[in-house]
Specification:
By secondary structure, the chain is α+β, with helices and mostly antiparallel strands. It folds into 3 domains: 4-63, Beta Barrel (OB fold (Dihydrolipoamide Acetyltransferase, E2P)); 66-133, DNA polymerase, domain 1 (Orthogonal Bundle), CATH 1.10.150; 154-201, Helicase, Ruva Protein, domain 3 (Orthogonal Bundle). It is built from 9 helices and 5 strands; from the N terminus they run βββαββαααααααα. Strands 1-2-3-5-4 form a 5-stranded mixed barrel. The radius of gyration is 17 Å and the shape is globular. Keywords: ATP-binding, Cytoplasm, DNA damage, DNA recombination, DNA repair, DNA-binding, Helicase, Hydrolase, Nucleotide-binding.
Length: 202
């Protein structure tokens, strides 16, 4: 199993990156938080890896710190929480916020994550509530602050994430602001990032 990759960051996209290790490019799926912390290509980075072996594929999931990887493992132990949903939760909530949400039975915070409805949030709370206190609370320096409320939090997080993808603040800020206004209360970090990338790629 691969424990970590250390090499050149060749490409960063929404949801994944490519890391060149001695001439071999590894496609690594990751949360917005981890991707935003990566250096601009082609600079060197070290990414912790969780390897998932399936019948039809070997998939790599990357993390900027061990706390996030531990939470990924715990979240995917819940029935109905696959890797994609777990990464969405880790993009929306920091390890510390996950600890807080689970220990206080804050179902609303969990349903902010894409793919997490009320029933799945209830299952996550039921299965993980007692284990949350023993999990790392995060707070590492490379983490992108998770948005606590729609509005300023999402705008700031999107700006940090796009900066991590190599976009200048001066070009990204007006695009994010416009999209936030257009999407209104329906705005989420994922939707703003997705539409920002489309707009900036034109």
């Amino acid at each position: 199993m691969i424990a970590f990759l250390s090499g050149l960051v060749i490409q960063v996209e929404l949801g994944s990156c490519v890391i060149d290790v001695n001439g071999v490019g590894y496609l690594v799926a990751a949360s917005t938080r981890t991707l935003a912390a990566l250096p601009n290509p082609p600079e060197k980075a070290r990414v912790l890896i969780e390897t998932v072996v399936r019948e039809d594929a070997i998939l790599l999931y990357g993390f900027g710190e061990s706390a996030e990887r531990e939470w990924f493992r715990l979240l995917t132990s819940v029935q109905g929480v696959g890797a994609k949903v777990a990464l969405g939760m880790l993009s929306t909530l920091s390890p510390g916020e996950l600890v807080a949400a689970l220990t206080t039975s804050d179902k609303a915070s969990l349903t902010r994550a894409p793919g997490v409805g009320g029933r799945l949030a209830e299952r996550i709370l039921t299965e993980l509530r007692d284990r949350a206190a023993k999990m790392p609370g995060g707070g590492g320096g490379i983490m992108v602050p998770a948005s606590a409320t729609p509005g300023g939090g999402i705008e700031a997080d999107a700006l940090l994430a796009l900066a991590g993808l190599g976009f200048r603040r001066s070009e990204a800020a007006p695009v994010i602001k416009r999209l936030m206004e257009e999407q209104g209360a329906a705005a989420s970090l994922d939707s703003v990032l997705r539409d920002s990338l489309k707009a900036l790629a034109r």
